[in-house]
Structures are given as C-alpha cells and as structure tokens.
Amino acid sequence: MARMSAVERRVRAAFHAGVEIAFSAGDPPLPGSVVADLLCRPVDRAEHPRAALRLRGATVIGPIDASDAEITVPVRFRDCRFDAPVDLSGARLADLQFSGCELRDLRARLMAVRGDASLADSTVAGPADLSDVRIGGDLVLERARLRHSGGRALAAARLAVGGSLLGSSLHAAGELWLDGAQVGGNLVLDGAVLRNPSKRAIAADRLVIGGNLRAGAGFDAHGDLLLIHSQVGGQLWFVGAKLTSPAGWALHLGSAKADSVWLCFAEAPVGRVRLSGLRTETLFDHPAVWPAQLDLVGCTYRLLVARSFEGGSSAPAGVVTVPVRRRLEWVRRSPDGYAPQPYEQLAEVYRRGGQDVEARRVLLEKQRRRRAGLRLPGRIGGYLLDGLVGYGYRTWLAGLWLLAFWALGTAAFTAWPPPPRNPAEAPEPSAALYALDLLLPIINLGHDTAWKPAGTGQYVAAVLVVMGWVLTTAVVAGLSRIINR
Question: Membrane spanning segments where (predicted)?
Fold first, then answer.
C-alpha cells in the first residue's frame, strides 16, 4: 500500500473526527481518489460516530468516482475546486452540500439523498446531471452558476424533491431540463437569470409542484419557457419577470393547471405567450404588459383581475379597472385568428360578476369577428342581423327600427291612402293606426283588415308585415331576458 502523504493523513484524521479541515493557498492539492476512497469505504460508526467529510478551500485534482456507493456520512464541500468530473451516479447519501465550489461537471443520475442537497454559490462549468435523482429535503441552487451554453446546464428530468427547489438568483447559460420533475414544496426562481437564446431556457413538460412556482422580480429569461401540462398547487407567479424569445415561446403554459396565475411582468414579453388549455381559478394581469401575441383558446378561469405593481416590486399596489373595450383587444391578440371560446369564456366571467351589459358586448364582438371570416352572402346576412338587432344582443335596436318603420308607414299611407274593403263598416281613416296594426302581428287594432292597400301601398304594407314579425320577435326576446334577470 502506498504511503500516505501529509495532506492525506490530515484529511483522514479530520474525516474520522467529523471536523472541517481548511486548506490554505500553500497547501498541496488533494487527489480525487482519496476523496472517493473516503466516501466509498464503509465507516465503523461505533469507532467513529462523528465521521463526516468536511473540506474547505481544497483543490481536488483528478476524478472523484463514488458511483453506486452507500455513503453514510455527511458530505460538505466549501469553497473547493474540482478540476475533473465528480461522479455520484446511483450513490445514496445522507446529505450533500457544495457551497461556493467550482466543479467541472457533476454526474449524479439516479442519486438518492435523504436530506438536503445544495449547489449554493457554486459554479458548474459543464453539465450538471441530476436526472432521476431523489432528494428527501430541499434542493438548493441559490446563486449557483451553471454554464453549458447550447446544451443542458441542468439535466433534472424526473427529479423528485420532497421539500422545495430553491433557485433564487440562479444564473444558467444553457437549458434547465425539468421534464416530469416533482417538487413537494415551492420552486423559487426569483431573480434568476437564464440565457439560452433561440433555444429552450426551461423545458418542464409535466412538471408537478405542490406549492408555488415563483419567477418574480429580477427573473430574466432569454429563450423558450415551456411549462406544458405542468401542475402547480398554489401560485404560478411571474410578477416583475422579463421574458424574451423573439422567434419562439416567451411563455408556454399549454394545458397547465394552477390555483392562480400572475402574469404581471416587468415589461411586455418579447415573443409568443400561450395559455391554451390553461386551467386556473384566478388569472391576474396588467394591460401595460400584455404580450403582443397571446393564445387563449381553451384557457379557463373563474376570475380575471388586473393588478398594478410599483416599480417592478413583487408587492401588489392595487386593482386596475379594465374596460370591456380593452379586454376585447386582449382577446384579439391571438396570432391564429378567430376562435369562439376565448370570447365565451370572457363573457362567462362578466356574467358571473353580474355585468350582463359587458357580457353581451363580448358576445356581440364574437359574432362580428366570426362574420369577418364568412363568404360574401354570410357577411351580408351578418351585417343585416347586426344592424337590426345586434345579433340579438342589442334588442333595443329593434324598438328603434319599429319606430322608424312606423313613421315610414304613416308617411306612406298618408301619401297613398288605402281604399276601404267595406265602406259601410270601415273605421275613420288613420294612417298611423293602420301602419301600427301592420307592424304589430300579435295585436289587432281593427285597421289592417279594414283597408286594402293598392299600388305602392301594397309593397309598403308587405314590408311592414315582414319587418313587424322580425322586429317584434326580437323585442319580446329582449324583454324576456330582462324579466328573467
């Protein structure tokens, strides 16, 4: 057996005593094989009950291969530098902490940690592979720097974290791959900066979070944010965030589910925002930061609230009143053209809040948008329905048209008085009553059967009868709706 160096003897003695050993600038580097041997070798807990690996300021040269090891002691690296891969694939640990360290790359696929795992304040120059990892406590990535431009800076598909994933002020150059990951607590990315332009900044298909997903003030992503089919038990929070993906998805929440969704960005996202299929109880936003391209087909919500925030703060400043005209501009931002469901959903929210006038305005706009896509005959019919009764949502127009046709009929029959059918029984001539009797099909004033229009008058009478049926039906429908309310 090779003779141990002085540094190795120091490290082994500190390991068995469970104390931290601090390296200074003049100390020789520590071989990675020594660290691997300490991690993989069984420890007699009766003889060394406090055993732990605690290194500060060490330069570790050569790879550390502790794959598939059963590591029963705490592992803490502080301000250490590793010039070769650290391989913990399949290893089982009590806890694992890299704090302020520099790693070339971290290989930890299928690793299991009973407690917390941390890369806080650490830099990983190559990929950090945490795919299929199981962590009983928290995964701490606060202020970490993950650098693998063009690739996966963090590969954490199917990661399972019992506690929270804490990534405040995380800096990542490359993709955060979280497909199928599960987080029991919160996923916190406040202040995180993600850079993977023209590619995926976050890919998190079917991500499941028990608590909140926070990407709040200071969060800045260049690249696609894909949270498709994700489930968030609490808030999905993008208050004060900046999202940039000019040719892609600034934010994709297709078929996602959350208790509440906060889209009060620091500025309007650059790129497309998709909420198609999103299900939430309450959707919060602000007109000043609405995205230019917004997909809302299939998005369902019970409440729609506009909130203001002061200076990018994460604290709400108040509720903003958004007139229905502005909300219609919001719905029309779909780059794919007309779809009926977003209008129906918005009208449902207005109706639920007792705002029937606004609800009818939305449904009227839905018909007008639909009309624009019809062929010429359909468009002509649509314009007639719109002008006469507002597609049934402005039935008061029918009353105005009735008055107009009554005036027209009165003038026409004054100019061309109809002759009586039976002069002996005819009532006193009245152009106004005759025109009104023709217009009101459900009321008989005794004039329409007493006179027989001739010449131009018969055409006027025919128009009054037809329009009377159409417009009276619309008025009755409108009155019924008012009475039911």
Answer: 399-419, 459-479
Question: Is 12 part of a structural domain of the chain?
Answer: no
Is residue 309 in some structural domain? yes
pLDDT digit of tens for each residue in the chain (485 aa)? 457 788 899 999 999 999 999 999 888 999 999 999 999 988 888 888 899 999 999 999 999 999 999 999 999 999 999 999 999 999 999 999 999 999 999 999 999 999 999 999 999 998 999 999 999 999 999 999 999 988 999 999 999 999 999 999 999 999 999 999 999 999 999 999 999 999 999 999 999 999 999 998 899 999 999 999 999 999 999 999 999 999 999 999 999 999 999 999 999 999 999 999 999 999 999 999 999 999 999 999 999 999 877 654 556 667 888 999 999 999 999 988 889 999 999 999 999 999 988 998 899 889 888 888 878 877 777 777 776 667 667 777 777 888 888 898 888 878 787 877 767 666 777 788 878 878 887 777 767 666 777 778 788 888 888 888 777 776 666 556 555 55
Which CATH number covers residue 421? 1.10.287
Full DSSP string of 203-256: E-TT-EESS-EE--TT-EEEEEEE-TT-EEEEEEE-TT-EEEEEEEEEEE-TT-
pTM: 0.83
Distance CA 26, CA 208 (A): 48
- Residue at 353: amino acid letter: G
Please check whether residues 206 and 316 belong to one and the same domain. Answer: yes
